[in-house]
Amino acid sequence: MAENTHLSIITLNVNGLNAPIKRHRVAEWIKRQKPSMCYLQETHLRTKDTYRLKVKGWGKIFHTNRHDRKAGVAMLISDKIDFKTKDIKKDKEGHYLMIKGSIQGEDDVTIINIYAPNIGAPRYIQQILTDIKGDIDENTIIVGDLNTPLTSMDRSSRQKTNKATEILKETIEKLDLIDIFRTQHPKKAEYTFFSNAHGTFSRIDHILGHKANLNKFRSIEIISSIFSDHKARKLEINHGKSKEKKPTPWRLNNMLLKNQWVNEEIKKEIKNYLETNDNEDTTSQNLWDAAKAVLRGKFIAIQAFLKKEERSQMDNLTLHPNELEKEGQKRPKVSRRKETIQIKEDINKIEI
């Protein structure tokens, strides 16, 4: 038994997943973040397209029912946690999805994933919370693109919140819910979205939790994403004991064989191995069994090296736009914003 573990939740407005290359990039991004649960908004996928959300290592997928390609929210749950579904609620318009379940057969949890429309978002969220208040308890977590800055600190313009937002905040407080990011970072000016129309940054993507579980929320951060106009939020939650899973068997990644450098390295490894071990004292079976172990180790080392190189390259590429965005939040300039957009477009081309 693992004595101390935690759950990781990540949520992001992906701004459409109809393009296969974008779905692949999002899947790779999810795997790099290594969350226990992933929540997506604005998938733009229809009900029959839910299978397109499949990510290796993620066994459970829930998606709102949509017959057109608008809105859409989804929940992906990692195979690494034992999640048992108890109840599901969703709206017909594809704007929210609620899953009740248990984790590791012990902890009950209710996750609500919301994508609010651009117009009238505070009233829309307030109405949803009122309608489902009977399902909200201390084990509830609400994630999503609420399209609403909850405080003046959540806008770079420091604009005051309107009446509809104040009513929404009152509803949130009555349900004993808290904005986890603002609770942990009361004076931090960090945003999840930039409005080209208004030239302002804002934090309209949120994670809400029950105040009774404040001590369980280890950390929360905002994470950049190149493929969306929103940033992601990642929440780490303290969790009870869980069984350690057996390691999964190694499998060869066939894509490595398409790399000419990899093929040359493997040929050298085979040649060196045979020159050293192929003699009359070694049976063919022993030679083959040992060769498989040697080549497996070589493939693992090569794949680890390539992943490290790839990650280093992408980190270097994304560092500059992140720095520009930070400068843009302090001293907004049209030229700086254009440069950021251009760099992201260049990175997209390189990734594709």
Automatic annotation (TrEMBL):
Keywords: DNA damage, DNA recombination, DNA repair, Hydrolase, Magnesium, Manganese, Metal-binding. Mg(2+) binds at residues 13, 42, 145, 147, 229-230. Its EC number is 3.1.11.2. One of its GO terms (biological process) is base-excision repair. It is an enzyme of class 3 (hydrolase). Signal peptide: none annotated. Residues 316-339 are annotated as: Disordered. Probably binds two magnesium or manganese ions per subunit. The record marks 230 as: Interaction with DNA substrate. This is exodeoxyribonuclease III. It comes from Sus scrofa (Pig). The lineage of its organism: Eukaryota, Metazoa, Chordata, Craniata, Vertebrata.
